[in-house]
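Provenance and format

Records in this collection were gathered into a single text stream. Each protein contributes a sequence line and a token line. The two records reproduced below are adjacent in the stream.
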Amino acid sequence: MKYTKSAGEKSTVKLSIAFTEQEWQDAINSSYLKVRGKYSVPGFRKGKVPKPVLENYYGKGVFYEEAFNSLYNRYYPEILSSEKDNFTAVGEPELDVEAMNAGEGVTLSAIVPVKPEVTIDTYKGLKIKKFEYNVSDADVDREANKILESQAKDEEVTDRACRNGDTVNIDFSGSVDGEKFPGGTADEYDLVLGSGAFIPGFEDAVVGMKKGENRDITVKFPEDYQSDSLRGKDAVFAITLNKISEKVYPELTDEFVKGHAGAETVADYKKKVRERLERNAVMRGRDETENSIITEVSKHATTVIPDAMIEAEIDKMVQDFSYRLMYQGLKLDDYLKYMQLSMEQFRGQFRDQAEPRVLSQLVIDKLIRTEGFKAEQADIDAKIEEQAKSVEKTVEEYKKSMDKRQLDYIANDIVITKMFDFLTANNEFYTEGEPAKPAKKPASSAKTAEKPAAKTATAKKTAEKPAAKTTTVKKTTAKKDEKAE
């Protein structure tokens, strides 16, 4: 076997893989022995038909496909291994028969999508938005009062109309141009008014209804609604209000927090709540600032991303969405039927997000290789010691519970932290409404190349139903040991 390579279009490499006549015939013979049991010829026992008889009965090329697959599976990984310093495949190749001449063997062509090279014009001296979040007394009170929800009781209301915050039990039937549509009808549906679970205008129109009242309301589906048949359309919903309930909460007292929060007093409990919220605010600001850094640097990056990388990223996003549906007791296939979407249409909704996410990954990898950020053993040991202390174990005890995946994560986390520390030191940052602060003197760094796995920037996706909306889908790769709630 011999091969040649040449640059292809849109970050691809073309491999021309030539096999001698002997290699080709050996592959055909091997394929015959492997698959002969699949074929039958009158007068012969299955699996015992001579090769020339099968070729005559089914055609000369009966074993070609299996032979091609055999050669590909044997030699393609070897080629990728030998070319690992020249390119990295990021998807399956497009295969074709380039030449097949009797007595001369065959030549396969493989168009391989490869990891593209990235050019970054600059990543120092940029003006980048910094995110900071403060915790107010109102935030603390709101969070502290959440503990009361577990002990809240629903009580029916009969002496007034419904208002925001109430739970109403309704029957509704929706139609567009006089025709009912899938997902627009339900009986005895519990809806929390003001929750934003239904399309804009629906819940506002229900507010003010009384038990037993019937009402027809008209709302408009959003222009960006997922179902093409409903997008931007006016819909009429016939509504019957069956029941109104309101939540009655206990009081937040010293006695209550002793029994439900493990605190001696309300003041102690709120102090712990504030500390937690402030930690989360710091982590949220840090994560969003880091995403802001990569987004800004990506504006100065140039590359050609192969379709295979974008499709692979869409695969991840679809899988993540599917997992989130599972937590709600839904299957993706059922969701697509409900939304009247094909898988192709559904995947198309992620495409605009997929490309910048891939670019962010490529930019991070380029920065790490260019500046030579590495996780030294001393860094890893310090991180392990820190984590061991956090779970009240000795370093030796903690190491026994670790596997290679965890060690790789720690090394990757250290490299990413070094990269963001470097970018923070070499760029200007400003908060909303404030002028940019002067950048610090650029820090020096090594130039050795190393490629730990890159972390991605945060991406969000919200999907709506014909009447109700699903929860916002977020996909964030953690950059530190802790995650903001």
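Adjacent record:
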Amino acid sequence: MKIAISTESDYVSAHFGRCPHYTLVEIEGDKVLTRELIDSPGHQPGFLPGFLAERGVTCVITGGMGPRAQSLFTQQGIETVVGVSGKLDEVIEKLLKGELEGGESLCEHGENPCQK
């Protein structure tokens, strides 16, 4: 399984489409096979699902993502997990242990600074 995590410094970013980097993590069982930090190609509506699908990503983890983006990822066969926060290494460890839980999107869409 290959996962893309929205990344800002050593933390999960609150907004998937506007983060500066993505950490791509390839996991097999309870082991990390590869880990790569890539620069964000920028926020272009509808672009990221295809961009990440071409890289073999099957799941994205983030603090927040709008419903339209979640739908576009689903159309690409990519699962989305929102409502995740914390240090990147701790999130990956929880994922490996099967303890990672999503929740409400940390970036509400509408009258919110995340829309700017």
